[in-house]
Amino acid sequence: MELKREYLLKYQADILVMGDNWEGKFDEFKDIEDVVYLPRTPSISATELIEKIKI
Question: What's the CA gap between 43 and 40, in Å, rounded?
Fold first, then answer.
């Protein structure tokens, strides 16, 4: 998390998309790109999806 600004600049991201459970936590990056918070989908875990993708 500490390197997020560095990563966003390095990879020239245009938008940062986060779940709305993080609402307001990444607004500090609005000076370099758009920050969008999407509503969470009940019973869906991003962590679980990532673990399944890795397999």
Answer: 9
Coil, strand or helix at 24: coil
Note every long-range contact of 4-11, with CB atoms under 8 Å and residues 24 or more positions apart, other chains counting: 4/29, 5/29, 5/32, 8/32, 8/33
**pLDDT value of position 28:** 95
pLDDT score recorded for residue 17: 92
Q: What is the pTM of this model?
A: 0.70
Structure-token pair, residue 23: 């609402």
User: In the numeric block, which tokens belong to residue 52?
Assistant: 């399944």
Q: 39-52: buried (b, 16+ CB within 10 Å) or exposed (e) per residue? A: eeeeeeeeeeeeee
pLDDT of residue 33: 94
